[in-house]
Amino acid sequence: MDLKDVKTGDTLLVNADTFLSRTIRKVMKKWGKKKGYDTSVLFSHAARFVWIADELYVFESVDNGYQPRIFSRHYDWETTDFAVMRRKEELTEAETKQTTHFCLHLDTLSVGYQYWNFIQWLLLVYLNINTFGKGDRDRFEYCYESEMEARKNLNPDKYGDVDQTDIFELLYDPNYKVIYKSKQ
Questions:
Q1: Continuous segment of H or E residues that includes residue 119
Q2: How far apart are CA 13 and CA 5, in angstroms?
Q3: Contact 153, 175 (CB under 8 A)
Q4: What angle do CA 29, 31, 34 make, to 5 degrees?
Q5: How far is CA 125 from CA 15, 40, 166, 167, in A?
Q6: Which among 137, 146, 163 has a CA at the least distance from the CA of 104?
Q7: What one-character-per-residue DSSP string does 29-67 give?
Q8: pLDDT, tens only, 111-153
Q9: If DSSP codes are grouped into helix, strand and coil, which group holds residue 132?
Q10: pLDDT tens figures, 25-84
């Protein structure tokens, strides 16, 4: 697979060699084992691919909110540890427009990364204290949740509450499949 083969609506799952990325994978591995998931494949970050004016963007929850960022300025197709997922049922032209509009809309609502979410995961995984709740769901989206929101926007009948989405819900979503994994 080449960069040009990526389609609007595909999911980017990625790892970095940073403290936060390694810590997220460690927490998700512990969570996955508690829940009985295969934890041999983990990714610390998720985003949605969108082509705009012949440029590939990733819409992702980062420190300044849900933002469109040019893929090639933040990731390297040859050296980044990542995977690409695609919905099993091909997106129609209308759905491609719908996901683009949804990502642009979410960009206007999400004004900052939900760092509190990382603490919530630590409390849940290590102390069994669940502090997840409703309230600021539209304004503050963490990466797994924002990707699940984009999936739900296309197929609301297939997804319930996306609050507290974990990497395994993305990886093992029966409506999506991994179509590419980097050589990392």
A1: helix 115-127
A2: 16
A3: no
A4: 110
A5: 20, 18, 12, 14
A6: 146
A7: HHHHHHHT---SS--SEEEEEEEETTEEEEEEEETTEEE
A8: 555 566 777 777 788 888 787 765 545 445 788 989 999 999 9
A9: coil
A10: 999 999 999 999 999 999 999 999 999 999 999 999 887 678 899 999 999 999 999 999
Structure tokens at 101: 């509009």
| Count, residues in the chain | 184
Torsion on CA atoms 31, 36, 37, 40, rounded to nearest 10 = 80
Cross-strand bridge partners of residue 45: 14
Contact by Cβ (8 Å): 15, 25: yes
CA distance 27 to 104: 30
Copy the structure tokens of residue 172.
Answer: 């093992």
Torsion 57-116-45-85 (CA) sign: negative
Q: Is the dihedral of CA 134, 137, 142, 146 positive or negative?
A: positive
Q: For 115, phi and psi rounded to 5 degrees?
A: -60, -30
- Cβ(150)–Cβ(103) below 8 Å: yes
User: Token pair for residue 132?
Assistant: 């997840």
Alpha-carbon distance of 45 to 22, in angstroms, equals 11
